[in-house]
Amino acid sequence: MSQPLNFVPVAEFRERARAVVSNPDLQKSLRGAMDFLQAKRTVQFPDDAELQRLRDLGEAIRQYSLAHLPELLVTLEAKLSANGIHVHWAETPEEANAIFIDIAQRHQARTVIKGKSMVSEEMELNHALQEVSIDALESDMGEYIVQLADEKPSHIIMPAIHKTKAQIAELFAERIPGVHYTDSVDELIQIGRKVLREKFAAADIGVSGVNFMVAETGTLCLVENEGNGRMSTTVPRIHIAITGIEKVVEKLAHVPPLLSLLTRSATGQAVTTYVNMISSPRKPDELDGPEEVHLILLDNGRTQAYADEQLRSTLQCIRCGACMNHCPVYTRIGGHAYGTTYPGPIGKIISPHLLGLASTYELATASTLCGACAEVCPVRIPIPDLLIRLRTEAYTNPATASQAVRGAGSAYSSVAMALWHAWAATYRHPVLYRAFTWCASRFRFLTPGKQGGWTVNHRAMQPARRRFRDQLKDRA
């Protein structure tokens, strides 16, 4: 890639959203993909009673894990170290990148092959490696496509969901040497596999994300469908796993219910093709596997969310993407409009902790609060409640704002607050309300023609010529 694709400022969110909504091809692609994913999930949960019991169990496991997070992380580190896995702690993305680069340079690594990892996207790892002349190649097919296109993922499970078959065909023909245009999906997949298979054998370091970490056994769990995760974690000499600190669970028995919820909610599968359990580097009697395994645990604002009892539920997320697939906003504007690593409903509640409310407060208002995200969340994260909380934090007077979220009070306006207080007083006191409605009906010609977002798709609202009260009095 030629340049870093950093966070898109809030001011550009509306402009990007409008561009997507006015693009009929993109609207067709998004709608078709979302309908397909919703239908697949529905088929996997035919018994609602069973689904609700499983959701209750998933929520309980995640809440228990978070309630004991500090102790579980200590146990996890001790067990991983005993198993021969090197554990590294990073407070910020910059620290995580520095740790990764240090490992790479100690091993004189020049090439990195990556399995799917949203936390590596969060860190902008590829760009950090590029700055020190280390090549990083994405091996997940969707990630590989968006890397070729110099784009970021638009979905946490299906990164290239915004691309059509024809666009991918043109991209491969343009960017991969010796490849001619073909719109055959099977041929495109084979082209990608051929390129990537050669890179696995040549890579010095393999990178992966982590779905769950088991404290009692020191096990890293990774699920995937293409086999690239297994190749990335077994073929190169060095394996570096990257994840957030919240992904830990206490027992191996806690993993199956979460995997059942994750795979069925994410891709509509009973189980993914590959479930990888990594507990150590290659042992002397084993034929494959890395010589070294490292785990980088990233904070990046997660302890901020953890410190607040209500906001802590944000960390329950198992990254299934179901909330995006059912969100009426995401399904129309896609992921790139948000400008954040994590788009959609989960992005709106996690991004303020990663980037601060000053940069992300408008995303919290890009929601209908319809509750669809909460209805499908497999671990019952109360996303609408958290959005309301973040809105409150953003618009609170900075002088009295809490310290729960960095950047609280960033959207505060003394003029807007004065108007809201006046509005509240008007509706609270009958005398003021009668005076206001009398003036509104007599001076209705002063009503502005532009009324914010309302007049984008609607006619401007205007008070009636006569109040209902006056009309009723005439009838009496």
Descriptive report:
The protein has 476 residues and is an alpha/beta fold. Among the domains are: 68-303, NagB/RpiA/CoA transferase-like (Rossmann fold); 414-475, no CATH class. It has helices at 13-21, 24-44, 48-67, 69-83, 93-106, 118-123, 125-131, 141-148, 165-175, 185-202, 228-234, 255-266, 302-307, 322-326, 330-333, 344-355, 357-364, 372-376, 383-395, 414-428, 430-442, 454-457, 468-475, and strands at residues 85-90, 111-114, 135-138, 205-208, 212-214, 219-224, 238-244, 248-249, 274-278, 292-298. A six-stranded parallel sheet has the order 1-10-7-4-2-3, sandwiched between helices. A hairpin with a 4-residue loop joins strand 5 (212-214) and strand 6.
Question: How would you sum up this structure in a few lines?
Answer:
With 476 residues, the protein is α/β, with parallel strands linked by helices. Among the domains are: 68-303, NagB/RpiA/CoA transferase-like (Rossmann fold); 414-475, no CATH class. It is built from 23 helices and ten strands.
Q: What is the secondary structure topology, with strand pairs?
A:
Blueprint: H1 13-21, H2 24-44, H3 48-67, H4 69-83, E1 85-90, H5 93-106, E2 111-114, H6 118-123, H7 125-131, E3 135-138, H8 141-148, H9 165-175, H10 185-202, E4 205-208, E5 212-214, E6 219-224, H11 228-234, E7 238-244, E8 248-249, H12 255-266, E9 274-278, E10 292-298, H13 302-307, H14 322-326, H15 330-333, H16 344-355, H17 357-364, H18 372-376, H19 383-395, H20 414-428, H21 430-442, H22 454-457, H23 468-475
Parallel strand pairs: 1-10, 2-3, 2-4, 4-7, 5-8, 7-10
Antiparallel strand pairs: 5-6, 6-9
